[in-house]
Amino acid sequence: MKKALFIDRDGIVNKKIPHDYVKKIEEFTFQDEILPILAWGKSHEYLLILITNQQGIGKGIMSESDLQTIHNHMNSILLDKIGLCFDDIYFCPDLAESESFRRKPNPGMLLEAIEKWHINPQQSWMIGDSISDAKAGKISETRTILVGNYSAEQVPEADFIIKDLHDVLSILEHTKGQ
Ligand SMILES: [Mg+2]
What's the 127 CA to ligand 1 centre distance in angstroms? Predict the structure, then answer.
C-alpha cells in the first residue's frame, strides 16, 4: 500500500482570491511555503495528490481548459523550483448546491485517488485551509491538518489545527512512523 499527502490548492499551494476564482495564470500566486512540505513528502515516499474544488467551472466563469493551463503552470513552477510536481490532480467542477459526492466536504475525489493508487488512508494526510478539507479527509480516514484560524471545538474533524503553513512540516516530522 502507498501513502499520500492530499493537498488542497487555493490557500495552500497558491493564495486564495477572496470571493473569486483563479481563472488564469496571472491570478495564480504561488506560495513558496508549500515547497518544503512537498519535498519532504516526496523524500518520505508519499504520493503528492492535489484535491481541489473548482466550482468556477460549474458556474461558467472559467473552462476546464483554463484550469488545465493553471495546473500546467503550477506543476512547471514546482519542477523548476524543487524538481518534482504533483503525481495526480483531482478537481471537482460541481456547484456547492449540487452536494456532489466528489466535492469536498464529501470524500469522492479522495476515495477515487485512494482506489486508483492503492493508498492506505490511515498512513496519509489531508492538508487544507477549509473546514471542508478536514471533513473530507476524516470521512476518507486520512489524518488531517487544517491551516487557519479555527478552534478544535469548531472542527472536530481536524487532527491538527495550525495558524501557519510553516508548522505543517514539524507535525509530519513528529508523527513520522506513527
Ligand atoms: Mg483551500
Answer: 9
Number of independent structural domains in the chain: 1
Which burial class, exposed, middle or buried, applies to 2 when counting CB atoms under 10 A from its CB (0-12, 13-18, 19+)? Answer: middle
Which residues are part of the catalytic machinery? Answer: 8, 10
Here the CATH number for the domain that contains residue 87 is 3.40.50.1000
Written as one letter, the residue type at 62 is M
- Tell how far the Cα of 126 is from the centroid of ligand 1, in angstroms: 11
Mean pLDDT per 10-residue interval, the chain, length 178 residues: 98 96 97 98 98 98 98 98 98 96 98 98 98 98 98 97 96 87
pLDDT at position 113, please? 98
The cell 466528489 sits on which residue?
102
